[in-house]
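Co-fold these.
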Amino acid sequence: MVPGKREGAVMRYSLELALRGLRRSPWSTSLAITTVALGLAACMTTLTLLHMLTADPLPGRSPHLYLAWVDTVQAKPSDYDSLNGVTPENYFRIRMDDAQALLRAHRAVQQVALAGLDASVGTADGDHVQPDQSLLGTTSEFAPLFGLALRHGRSWSAAEDEAHSPVAVIDVDLARKLFGTVDAVGRSIRLDKAVFRVIGVSARFAPQPHFYGLDRWAFSDTEAERVFVPYTAALDAGLKPGGWDRCDEAADKASRALFDVDVARCEWLAYWVRLDTPREVADYRHYLDHYAEQQPLDGRTRQKAQLFSVAGWLTRQNAVPDNVRLNVWLAASFLLLCMVNVAGLLTAKFLRRSAETGIRRALGASRGAVFAQHVLEATLVCVVGGVLALPLVLLGLWVLRMQEQGFTDMARLDPAMFGALFVLALVVGVLVGVLPAWRASRVEPGLQVKSA
Amino acid sequence: MSLRMLLSTLRRHSLMPILVALQVALACAILSNVLFMVQQQLAPMLAPSGIAGDELILIDQMTPRQHPWSAADVRRGEQALRQVPGVRDASAAFGLPMVSGALMDMALQGGNGAKVGVNGYLGAGLVKTLGLQLVAGRDFLPEEYRDFGMGGVGNAPWDAGAPQPVIITRALAEQLFDDGRALGKVLTDPGDADDHGYRVVGIVRHLLRNQLSLAIDGRSDNTVLLARRIGSTSLLSFAVRVDPPISEATRTRVAEAIKREFGPTMKADVIPRISSYAERRANAFKSHRAALWLFAVVTVTVVVVTVIGIMGLTGFWVQKRTRQIGIRRALGARRAHILRYFLIENALVAGSGAVLGMLLAVLGNRLLMRHYELAHLPWRYLPLGALLMLVLGQLAVLGPALRAAAVPPVAATRS
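Predicted complex below.
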C-alpha cells in the first residue's frame, strides 16, 4: 500500500471514531463546546481591541519617524509632586523659534513642525460653515513625510511657508461638503475670518492612533483633520494653537486669558523628522543635544534634548489605556479556567468508555493511535467551540463599540484576528486534549476486556 | 472512616482531584481580583456626597470670548442667578462635586504628620449653597474671603502672611489628627515650607471630592473648602441651589439668566453646561456602571463554569466508585456517612485549590502591578474569594454526593 494512502485511511478512521465519540454523550460534548466558546470569545474580544489599538499608525513610514524635542523655556523647573496623582501632561512640543531654527538647519531627511488648531471652516462667501473643525497647521514637508495622499492639486512649498502664503490642502470629504465636488483646487475657503486658497485635495487622513497629536485625541472614528495649512499663515490669520506645554515665566505674567497661548513664548509645535538609518538617528540625537547646549542658560537646570521613535512615543504617552491590557489578562485567565474545565470534562468522558478503549487496545491499537484519536476528538470540540465563539466575539465587539470611550470605536474584527481565532482554537484544542488523551491511552487492554 | 483513608483515595486517583483543585484555584484567583475591582468601581458610587444634591443645578464650561471676566462681572452673575424665581442661593465656584473640569490639587499635613492629598473647592458661601452640614466650628466670615480666579488679573496672593481659614471634612480631621480634633489647629503644605498653612475653622460631615478616581479606600471625603471668592477669571462655574424638586421651568430660567448676563461676553462655540447634580452624577458614573456590568457577567460566567466543572468531574468520580460505596454501605456505613465523606473530600480538594488560588491572585496582582496602573490587592479579598469557592464547591458536590448516598448496599455485588 502507498504510505500516504494508508495514513489517509488511518486519519479518516480516527476522525470517524472521534466524531462518533462526540455524538455518544451529546450533553457533555455540548457543555465542553460551550465552555470553550465562552473562553475563546472572551479572549478574542479583548485581543481584537488590543490588536486594533496597537496597530501601526502609518505602516511603512512610522519606523523612520521620530519626534524631536529641545527644551529652551525660560522658567524654573517645577518639582511638582502631587499626592493626588495629578501629573501635568507633557506632549514634548517645542517653541516656534527652535522649530524655525531646526527647519532652517534641515539636518534630517525630512522634517515638519505641526500643531492642531481649531477654527470654523466655510466657503469664502460664508456659506456651508462647519463650526469647530480640527485643522493642522504644519510645514511644507508634511505631505511627503506623513504620506498625505493628494487626489488633486499639490501641497505647498517651503517658499510658501516662508512667505506665509494663505494656501490650504483639504480632504475629499470636506471638499464634497463645501463645494459639492472632489476637485476643489483653486476654490477659496474661510477659516474663522481669513480666506485661504485651496491648492490641493487629499484623501481622508486619519492614522490610528493619532500619534502626532495625542493632546487632541488618541483614537477616534469620527475625528480627523480635514484642513492642512502652513502654520505661519494660520498664525497670520489669527488662528490659535489648541494646546501647549510650558511657557517662559514672562509669558504667564503677560497672558490675558487662560486659554490664550503666547505663541512666541510657549512650546506649542510638535517637531517630527524622518531618519532612515541608525547612523542618522545617532547623528541627529547628537545634533539636538548640541543645539540644546548652545541655548542661553538663564538660571534654570538644563533638561536634555530627546528623540522618540513612534513606538517609543506611544509607549511613553500610554496611548493604549492600561485597562485594555488588563482585560486581556483577565480574559486569558478565564480561558485557562475554561481549558482546565474542558480537560476535566473530556477526561471523564474518555474514561467512561475505558472498556471500549481496552478492547481497541486488545485488538492491536497502539497507545499512540489511542492518544492521537483522543487528541483529535478534543481538537474537534475546540474547533467547533471556535466556530461558536465567532458570533460571541462579534457580539462582544458590538457591546464594546456601545461604550462611549473613544478608543472603543476601533473594536472591529479584521481578517488577521479572524484567522487568529481559529489558530487559538486549534492550539487550545491540542493543549486541552493532551492530558485526557494521555490518561485514556494508559488504559490496559486485558483488564478492561474482563470487566466489559 | 478516617481522614487517612480519604487522603489515600485522593492520592491514588490523583488526576480528577487535581483538575478540580486547579479549576478552583483559577476561579478563586479571578474572582478575588474581580471582587476587588468591583469594590473599586462601587466605592465612589456609594460614597455620601454631603451636599443637597436634589436641590442643585451646576453650571460649568463658561469661557470668555476675549478678556477674562472681572470680579464685578462674577458678582453680578451671582446676583442675577439669586433673583431667578425658585433659586435659593448661587455661588460662583472653582471645584464642585461631579465637575471634573476645574480641579484643585492640594497636599495637607496635620498634627500626626500624615500627608494627605485633597481636592479644594473655592467660592463664596459654598457651605450654604451646597447645603453642607457643619458638625463643628463655623462657616467662613464674609471678611475672610479673598479673590481667586484662573487666568484672570488682580487676584489676591495665596499667602496672606498668616494661616488662611479652611473648612475640612470629618474624615479628613480623623486622617490628619490622631484624636480627630482638628478645630482651631493649623494644617501645613508639605511641599512648601514657607507657606503659613491653613487654620481649621469648621468641619463638615461629608463632602465628596471631584477627583472621582481617588474616591476609594476611604479617601472620598478628602475635600476642603477655602475662603476664596471667585474674582477675575477665564474659567467660570456656578453652583445654584433651587427649591426641590428641580423643575424644568427653573432650569430654563437659570439658563436664561446665564445667557442674559454672560452671553455677549462668552465664547460662541463653547456651550456652557447647565445640568442638575443628579444628571452629572449619572453621567460621571456611566463608565463605572459599564465596568460593573462587565464584572457581573465575568463573575456569573466564572461561577457557572466552575460549578458545572466540579459537578461533572465529581459526578463521574462518584459513578466510578459506585461499587466501593456499595461495599462500605454493606459494611454498615450509613447514608449520612457517605454524604459526609464526599462533602469532606470536596472541601479538602476545593480548600487546597483555594489556597493555591490565593497565591495565584497575589502573584497575578503583583505581576500586573509592575507593568500597569493597578491598585494593590488588599489581603482581605483573598479569604473572601477562597470562602466563595469553598461554598460553591460544597453546593456543586451536593448533587453527586446525594446520588452517592443513595447507592444501595447491593451495588457491591454488581460490578
